[in-house]
Design brief:
The protein is mainly beta. It is 9% helix and 33% strand.
C-alpha cells in the first residue's frame, strides 16, 4: 500500500493470532485496513479468547460494526470495499465511539468487555475469517478524545498517503 508492507488474509483459513494481551477498557484502536470482499459476520479483528471485542462485517455490504458486549451502530460512512481507510474504535462502555477516517464518530454503548487477546481477520469460531488486508494497528489504553483521535488519524493519513 503506497510502498508500505501489508498483510492479506484470504477469508478462508488465514488469520493472525497473538498471545493473550489483556487491555481493560477504556481502549482506543486505530486500524488501517481494507475489506477485500464482504461476507456477513466475517471478522476484521477479534479478541482471541471468547467473544469479547471485535470489528465485524455486519448485515449489509459494506457495513462494519464493533462490539464489546453490545453492537455499535453501523460505521457511517461505510468503508468501501477495496479502499484503505483508518477505522477508529474507542471501547469505553456507554461512551464508546466508532469512526471512519476524519468523519464524525458514531457514539453509543458497545458494552464493557475487556480485550483479552488479538486475532486479525479471525472470529472466535471457525468460518468467520475476514477477507481483508491490514497495514497498521495502534492500540492505546485510553479513551482518546476527538482532538487526540485527529492527531493519530492525520499522522496515519500522512504516513500512508490516504
Amino acid at each position: 500500500m503506497n510502498g508500505h508492507t501489508t498483510v492479506r488474509f484470504d477469508g478462508v483459513n488465514q488469520y493472525g493470532v497473538n498471545a493473550i494481551i489483556p487491555i481493560p477498557q477504556p481502549a482506543t484502536y486505530y486500524a488501517v485496513f481494507k475489506q477485500i470482499t464482504w461476507t456477513a459476520n466475517r471478522s476484521i479483528f477479534d479478541s482471541n479468547g471468547g467473544i469479547q471485542h471485535y470489528i465485524q462485517q455486519n448485515a449489509i455490504s459494506p457495513n462494519l460494526k464493533c462490539y464489546a458486549g453490545a453492537l455499535s451502530l453501523d460505521l457511517n460512512p461505510a468503508l468501501a470495499l477495496n479502499t484503505y481507510g483508518i477505522v477508529t474504535c474507542v471501547f469505553n462502555g456507554a461512551n464508546s465511539e466508532f469512526r471512519n477516517n476524519n468523519n464524525a464518530s458514531q457514539i453509543g454503548n458497545f458494552g464493557n468487555n475487556n480485550l483479552i487477546g488479538l486475532a486479525l481477520a479471525n472470529f472466535d469460531n471457525a468460518g468467520n475469517n475476514g477477507n481483508c488486508e491490514w497495514s497498521y494497528l495502534i492500540i492505546r489504553s485510553a479513551a482518546d478524545n476527538t482532538s487526540t483521535q485527529n492527531l493519530f488519524i492525520n499522522y496515519l493519513k500522512n504516513r500512508f498517503a490516504l
